[in-house]
Specification:
The chain has two helices and 19 strands. The chain is mainly beta. Keywords: Signal.
């Protein structure tokens, strides 16, 4: 009797196992099949950027919907990057489901300045442009459109400080009669210059006059108004950085190349 009951139980369990296996095989599975990436179209591939035309239209981008193989909410991001950087640090515009984005001259110039805060006005520069499409809340890798591009000569949108600093002194080629202007670094808010110097002296001065000048009374790289001349002990080419925003005093560094 036990043998018959045991065989019956085993038979029932085997039947259930087959049924469960069959259910697993017959289960409907959702398979993600990649369709088309968005196709990007630009109304222009060059733009003229000037402060006077900041409100004028520069370029409009449109793109086709991305297809992920099933109905899903898709969000689009328009990306700009310097040519050759592989979009390592892009300027991005999150647009949700929208399939177009327009830029005025001022807005496009802001994109350029956002990619390079020390941009030089009037230098023709090419940016690469693409659209990223991603499923909202999904764990699927985004897809990207083929690259487009825009070529323009942007202008520096930031205003330099009112006081323009320079190097002057017997250590420079111009001596005490002609100063050598420094360049303002908008990214780091400092003045800098690379300059050949002889073994002599120099000072910092602003606005091509002596009303505002800085020297180093304590030879400690801290600067004082109307301070002592800075001594160069060895001739060579030097990188000089002036930070007039440092507190409690302006500071400088001088490094021989």
């Amino acid at each position: 009797m036990k043998t018959w009951i045991t065989q019956t139980a085993l038979g029932f369990l085997a039947t259930m196992a087959i049924a469960l296996t069959s259910c697993e095989k017959d289960e409907t599975k959702v398979v993600l099949t990649m369709g088309a990436a968005p196709q990007l179209k630009a109304s222009a591939t060059t733009a003229a950027l000037t402060p006077a035309t900041a409100a004028a239209s520069a370029v409009t981008y449109t793109w086709t919907p991305a297809e992920f193989g099933y109905k899903a909410g898709v969000a689009y991001t328009l990306q700009f990057a310097k040519q050759g950087t592989n979009f390592a640090t892009p300027q991005e515009f999150d647009l949700g489901p929208v399939l177009t984005k327009s830029f005025t001259v001022g807005e496009l110039n802001k994109v350029y300045n956002g990619l390079d805060c020390n941009i030089v006005s009037g230098v023709s520069t090419r940016l690469e442009v693409r659209v990223k499409a991603a499923i909202v809340g999904g764990k699927v890798d985004p897809v990207y459109s083929p690259l487009s591009g825009i070529q323009a000569s942007p202008f520096q949108a930031q205003a330099a400080p009112a006081d323009a600093w320079a190097i002057i002194g017997s250590a420079t080629a111009g001596g005490w009669g002609a100063e050598t202007p420094m360049t303002y670094d908008f990214c780091n808010r400092i003045w800098k210059i690379t300059i050949p110097l002889t073994a002599a002296e120099f000072k910092f001065r602003a606005n091509n006059g002596w009303a505002l000048n800085l020297g180093d009374d304590g030879a400690d790289k801290s600067l004082e108004p109307n301070g002592k001349n800075i001594v160069v002990t060895e001739a060579g080419t030097y990188d000089i950085v002036l930070n007039v925003n440092a507190t409690p005093k302006a500071t400088f560094t001088i490094t021989k190349r």
